[in-house]
Amino acid sequence: MIRLKGHLICLSEDEAQTVRQHLAEHTRLSRSESGCLSFDVSETDDPMVWDVQESFRTREDFDAHQTRTRQSSWFDATRHILRDFRVEELPD
């Protein structure tokens, strides 16, 4: 299993609004991907920081998610937002 944990860190209210505007569709598409076990992005106590937790069955599933994401309207809109992620490969 592959697990990603970390944060999206917005530097302005405009960036936070961009996340809010695009998040529902990004979440829906991600959760429908083959091999997606979980996908959650949620606001924290800091309205400029979002908690991100994802898990995928295999490295190939995770890589396919990354490829799809990089071609999405989510990535086009949020590519400039700071990401602080850690990816772990966990035993089954």
Radius of gyration, Cα only, in angstroms?
13 Å
Helix content: 40-55%
Query: Based on CA inertia axes, which overall geometry fits?
Result: globular
Number of helices: 3
Mean pLDDT: 96
Strand content: 25-35%
- Biggest β-sheet strands, sense, barrel: 4 strands, antiparallel
Termini separation? 6 Å
Number of strands: 4
What's the CATH C level? Answer: Alpha Beta
Order of helices and strands: EHEEHHE
- Unreliable stretches, pLDDT < 50, 5 or more residues? none
Q: Structural class given helices, strands, pairing?
A: alpha+beta
- Largest beta sheet: what is the strand line-up? 2-3-1-4
CATH topology: Alpha-Beta Plaits
Q: Please identify, by name, the CATH architecture.
A: 2-Layer Sandwich
Total domain modules: 1
Structure, explained:
With 92 residues, this protein is an alpha+beta fold. The chain has one domain (2-81): Alpha-Beta Plaits, CATH 3.30.70.100. Helix content is 40%, strand content 35%. The protein has helices at residues 13-31, 59-70, 73-78; strands spanning 2-9, 36-43, 49-56, 82-89. It has a 4-stranded antiparallel beta sheet, with helices on one face. Strand 2 and strand 3 (49-56) form a beta hairpin.
